Fold this sequence. Notes:
Blueprint: H1 9-16, E1 23-27, E2 42-45, H2 55-63, E3 68-74, H3 84-91, E4 96-100, H4 102-109, E5 114-119, E6 129-133
Parallel strand pairs: 1-5, 2-5, 3-4
Antiparallel strand pairs: 1-6, 3-6
Amino acid sequence: MLTTPITHPELLAALARCGHGSKILLADCNYPHVTGAPATAERIALNVTPGLLTVDQILAPLSRTLTVESCEYMLNADSAKAPAVTGYEEILPSVSFTGHERFAFYDAAREPDVAVVIATGDQRQYANLLLTVGVVTA
């Protein structure tokens, strides 16, 4: 039996293939899931219905499943931190966060080290989050 809080088979398999420096994109429902990431990235659909699942609902168990080294988020239209980011910072209090203007975030999310794209049903604008996988310590 699994003891991880995540039991979704395809998600677990995709996470297991990630290593230090791999990136995981948690994308809101407005994000272009197909064209907004490299073609080689594995796509996991967790967008059950509008509003479910949210990035926070996926990030919480994800944070207990793997080590997160750093996070990047999309700034809103006013170049400010979107309200959603506050929740991410609460889930990952010891992780550094960097904000990017929308098109710079798209560029970062299209880099070849993005290994997994998780499509969420999060309806909040600018709720996208790019995680960098950290090192597992003994």
